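About this split. The held-out portion is used to measure sequence recovery: a designer receives only the structure tokens and must propose an amino acid at every position. Recovery is the fraction of positions where the proposal matches the reference. Here is one held-out target exactly as it appears in the evaluation file.
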């Protein structure tokens, strides 16, 4: 004769924690833009690619990618590499960079 094992009751559910506030709600009360939103002046070399007006760092990166894709400057064998044309060689200082290195070279051209 088979013996019945007692059924276990499920553990009581824990109360849900209050919902976290969205990141936008945590903005600094002073209203200052963060580092990516701060308008910076590009150097003449970088300005030849993204324009010479003050621009936020995030927009610079976006315009750089627009330029890279419009001029087909990604290495077809390794899309992470950017093959510099004459304008980008002045910014990067070499013939090719990885997309991870690109921000380091851009930062040197923003004041």
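Reference sequence for scoring:
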């Amino acid at each position: 004769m088979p013996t019945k094992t007692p059924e276990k009751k499920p553990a009581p559910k824990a109360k849900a924690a209050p919902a976290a506030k969205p990141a936008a709600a945590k903005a600094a009360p002073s209203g200052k833009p963060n580092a990516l939103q701060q308008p910076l002046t590009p150097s003449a070399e970088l300005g030849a690619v993204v324009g010479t007006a003050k621009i936020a760092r995030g927009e610079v990166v976006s315009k750089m990618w627009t330029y890279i894709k419009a001029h087909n400057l990604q290495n077809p064998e390794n899309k992470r590499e950017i093959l510099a044309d004459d304008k980008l060689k002045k910014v990067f200082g070499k013939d090719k960079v990885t997309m991870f290195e690109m921000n380091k070279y851009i930062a040197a051209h923003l004041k």
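Annotator remark: The chain is about 35% helix and 10% strand.
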